Amino acid sequence: MNLRHWREPSVLDSFRDLWGSRDEWTFIPPADLVENQHEIVLTLDIPGIQRDKLDVSVDEGLLTVRGERQEERERKDSETYRVERVYGSFQRAFRLPSAVDAEQVKATYKDGVLEVRLPKTEAAKAKKIPVQPA
Fold first, then answer.
1. Which residues span the domain enclosing 55?
2. What's the number of CA atoms in the CB half-sphere (13 Å) around residue 81?
3. Residue 11 domain-assigned (yes or no)
4. What is the Cα 111 distance to its own chain's centre?
5. CA–CA dist 69, 106 (Å, integer)
6. 3-class DSSP state for residue 102?
7. Which CA distances in Å does 119 have to 11, 44, 66, 85?
8. pLDDT in tens, 15-58
9. Torsion region of 61: left, alpha or beta (phi above 0 gives left; psi -120 to 50 gives alpha)
10. N- or C-end of the chain: fewer Cβ atoms within 10 A?
11. What is the C-alpha to C-alpha distance for residues 35 and 75, in angstroms, rounded to an integer?
12. Number of compact structural domains in the chain
């Protein structure tokens, strides 16, 4: 057997069946969207993306995150045996469950994790209503 052309089966083999060739794969970073009494917090795993390649916007209750992960090096003088990481542009959009103060939104990016904090407007915060005797 010629080991140069042998490769072990990969989890990506099943992806090829579903999505076609590697050039057709879509980069969809995983996200958590959590709401508490004061804010909504989005956490998005996007390692390998430069901060200046990220765009975060809030418009009429829709949070949109766009970015691009570019392949870091060319492989002109080497033979590629496996490429499992997906590169390219992505866009994720989330309908927000509450009104957000768009002027106070903060986004930070550290160690491949984007965190977007979206404070709620006063009108959107839950209020306790006292029950009066009849």
1. 26-71+83-121
2. 8
3. no
4. 14
5. 22
6. helix
7. 40, 17, 21, 34
8. 444 444 555 557 789 999 998 989 999 999 999 888 999 999 99
9. left
10. C
11. 44
12. 1
Q: How many residues can be counted in the chain?
A: 134
Residue 58 belongs to a domain = yes
User: 73: which 2 tokens?
Assistant: 């090096």
Q: What angle do CA 30, 93, 118 make, to 5 degrees?
A: 90
Instruction: Please give the model's pTM, rounded to 2 decimal places.
Output: 0.71
Please choose, from the candidates 82, 83, 86, 84, the residue with its C-alpha nearest in 3D space to the C-alpha of residue 7: 82
Closest CA to 116 of 102, 129, 130, 132: 102
pLDDT one-digit tens code per residue, 81-110: 777 778 888 999 999 887 889 889 999 999
Instruction: Quote the CA–CA distance of 11 and 26 in Å, as a whole number.
Output: 16
Tokens 């956490």, residue located: 43
Residue 32 belongs to some domain of the structure: yes
Residue type, 131: V
Alpha-carbon span 40 to 126, nearest angstrom: 13
* Rounded Cα distance, 70 and 50, in Å: 9
